Input
Amino acid sequence: MRLHSLSVRNYRVLRDVQVELAPGLNLIGAPNETGKSTLIEAAHRALFLKARVTGKWREAMLSQERADHPEVAVSFVAHGRTWQVVKKFAGQSGQCTLMEEGGATWRGDEAEARLAEVLGVTTAAGRAVTDQWAHLWVRQGESGTDPTERVNEQKGALLSRLERVDATVVSVMQSALDSSLAARFQEQQDALFQRNGEPRAQSPLGRSGEEWNRAREAVAAAQERCAALERSAAAYSSACEALDRAEAEAGVVAPQAAGVETALARVAELRAVEARQALEAEAARLHLESLLEAERQIESFAESTRALAEALAPDERAEETLALEEDQCLGRLETAESERVSAVAARAAAQQACDLAVSRLTVMEKSAEWHRWEERRKVVEALQTEDRRLALELAALPVIDSGALKTLTTMEKSRDEAAATLRGMAAGVRVLAADQPVQLDGVDLVAGEERVLTTTAELVVGRGVRLRLTPGGGAGLEAALRRQAEADESLRSALTSFGVPSVTAAAEVLDRRRQHDGERLLLRKRLSDLAADELPARAAAAAEALAAAEVALARQESSAAGEGAAVPPPDDLAAAQAHCRQTAAGLTAAQSREVAAATARVSLDKALALVRKRRTDHAAALAGRRAELERARARHEYLVSTHGETTARQAALALAKEAWSRAGASLEATRAELIALNPESLEADRDRLRRAIEDIGRRRQQAETARAIARSELTRDGGDDPHERLAQAVAWERSSAETAAHARRDAEAIKLLHRLFAEEQRELAARLIRPLAEKINAYLECVFGPGAEAVLTFEDQAFGAFALARPGRLAGAVPFAALSGGAREQVAAAMRLAMAEVLAAGYDGCLPLVFDDAFAHSDPARIQSLLRMLDLAARRGLQIIVLTCTPADYAGLGARMVALGAP
Amino acid sequence: VAARLLAAAQDSSRTEEAEIAQAALRQLYLALPQPAR
Output
């Protein structure tokens, strides 16, 4: 079946479109929203949707702009003839016409039925229109979905075509006997085994296994029973033997233990006697030792009393020597003290004479200094008087400085220049000689007098002559006059302000001011050199110092007495200085003498203190030794009074020695008897024998218990023969083991049969679908390169999930769902093309495949590979219709380009 | 399947597998339709 042409009118956005299609490759390229998908959908509806359809199917076809009914005409080739179907979707009055070229024409339902027959489709109720030829019509958004469902939809048609390739396979696969046997063995295996391979409990295999387990448990129990009885018999005889051994050992050990106990009782008795005798011997020894100690002390104190009395005599002589030495030290100390007092008095007199000489010298020096300051004060007063005089004179002069003089000179110059200018313009009148009175503007003008006329003036000569004189210059003369008047006024005003009559006088005043300033400057320099500012304070300080020195001198002179006052005051400063040096030398000598006397006194003090300390120490030691002598005498007298005189003490000592000797002999005899009995060995023997008796008793008790238990075991449950029971259990185990082996072998046989049937069926299925897989591989190699192949399975009468295997990929075959978006589009297209190629055998070797924007996820390089795949499909007889909004990507396809204009 | 079972049943070197194959042959024979039965 091959589409030839399409004509669409009033179908949604399409007003009136006619398209001619090539037998092989076709490319419908147009921008979005231009009606590509609508065009191909209209063709699909014309082929598979009845013309009298109503409801949502028809409403989906209607144009929003036009009220006319949608109308679609499709021309196609099928079964070697050309057909044209025309459908007008007008609801209940829809029309369908099918025309066979050069043949009959069908209308209405007959046309619909004939069309379905030609296309080889069923129009069963409930089958969605969109499912018709869905394996050939790839709509937008469906290109990447798993095509396995579409393959299984076409499973019947595909197997129908494939069985023609290998009819044997299909005949076997579809054999009723084969199917029943496979189902039987499947059922038997399910009855025998669970899903995890373990036997089912209720199956013959499970039951026989369970019985075998029970038989084995019974054998084990019977064996354990026999062994337990044998162990009990052995235990009984062993316990009897142990009891006999314990009785024999007890007969030996008991007498030994009784003898040891008797010896130990004697040891205890001897130890009591020994303790009492030891106490008596110790008391005798202590008494003897106390007597010996008293004797030793009496002799010791007598000896020490004699020694202390002899040692005391030299100390008492030394005491007298130290007393004499102290008296001598005191005598020397008094002499040194007198010398020191004399030296102190001499130093005080020398100090007084020296102080008086210094005071007199100070008064003379202060007086001389005061006189110097007084003379300087007089000079300063004279200079200050002169300075005040100059200041008064300067204050009386006008205040003119060089700047003011310069200003006045400039103004005078300006006035002179203005006067000169005026004179240059004015006329002059000089009376050289006149015999009549001459008046100029009413003022007499005498001979030789000259006037300068700057304005019009009237000259009267005598009585009859009146002349009007008018100087030249005009306006310039008036300006000169005005400037002169202004300059004259300015100068006059300035002179008045400075208080001088003329500029010359101002220059003189300035000279005088400068002279006075110079003189005052010199005066101030001299005053500064004389420190005039500090002079009063210094003069006052000198006077004050002089007065203080005089007061101090008067006080010293009044307090001085004797030879110091007898010395007359010096006549001048040099004599005072000489006297002062003389008294200072005397003072130094007196101070040296005082220091020597004080040093001697201190050394004598130290010597006296040393002697006194030695005497004190010696006296303390002497007193200690005297006290010690007294204590020794008192102790000796006390001991003698207590213990008696020498004869009585000797008798008591002899008695004490005899008593101590007797007690020691008794104690030694008792201890010898104790040693002979060897008490430590006896106690060890008693412990050892007690342990032996306890051990014998314990073993006897254990043997009696074991014998009772064994006897109980042997007498319990004695109704049957355990060896016979064991033989029965062994026979049961053998029988059940054989049964279980048979059941297991039969079960394994069922499992083997099931596996062999499944393997054979898989092999047949692989042979059946091999042509389809080979076609898919051819298309996949166009895209993914040589070696790419499809992993396709057919089990349980259905195609399984698809996977893609590529050479060099370590991950193995990749399931369809795990592929990338682009790879899913390409693999799904390969499967659709291969399926269409197989199915095309029933449609004159051709079927149309529509790819509506089906490769949106493929990159440009992969699209070039896709072009090879599509071209291969066209070369193998399929009609390919590609819809795209990017036709440039398919430029290399070599397809008929079908352009759509604006709708 | 019967051919493969027969070959295995006659393999004397593998006793247990041969016994299982013989049992499987017996099961297969019993499963086949028997006109007389």
Q: What stands out?
A: The two ends of chain A are 29 Å apart (CA to CA). Chain A has a mean pLDDT of 87. DSSP finds 19 helices and 22 strands in chain A.
